[in-house]
């Protein structure tokens, strides 16, 4: 049974403050140990020097799940849903990529 990688990049609107962005990052980093099935997790603010490619995306998340079932259980998990609710009013766009690790 393959593990799964879950990659998310967030683009916030003008309503976001640096403090709010830091708070959201802290919530993401707290997922590990609170949501079952997470093998590894990293998240951070975009520090790329490829400024032509930022397109307004400022926060990235990478989560490795032990299985597809763990990835599926993550979406409705209360800790994840609390984070999603916190995006209200500040999220402009999001990109998600999930794939099995070969």
From TrEMBL:
A Pfam family matched in the record: Dabb
UniProt xrefs under PROSITE patterns: S_R_A_B_BARREL
Chain ranges of the Stress-response A/B barrel domain: 4-99
Record InterPro entries: Dabb, Dimeric_a/b-barrel, HS1/DABB1-like
UniProt xrefs under SUPFAM superfamilies: Dimeric alpha+beta barrel (SSF54909)
Subunit structure: Homodimer.
Record protein name field: Dabb family protein
Native species: Paenibacillus artemisiicola
């Amino acid at each position: 049974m393959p593990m799964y990688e879950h990659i998310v990049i967030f683009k916030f609107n003008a309503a976001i403050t640096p403090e709010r962005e830091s708070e959201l990052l802290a919530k993401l980093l707290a997922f590990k140990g609170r949501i079952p099935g997470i093998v590894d997790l990293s998240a951070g603010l975009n520090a790329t020097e490829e400024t032509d490619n930022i397109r307004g995306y400022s926060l990235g998340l990478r989560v490795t799940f032990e299985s597809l079932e763990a990835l599926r259980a993550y979406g409705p998990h209360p800790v994840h849903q609390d984070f999603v609710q916190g995006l209200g009013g500040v999220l402009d766009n999001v990109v998600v990529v999930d794939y099995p690790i070969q």
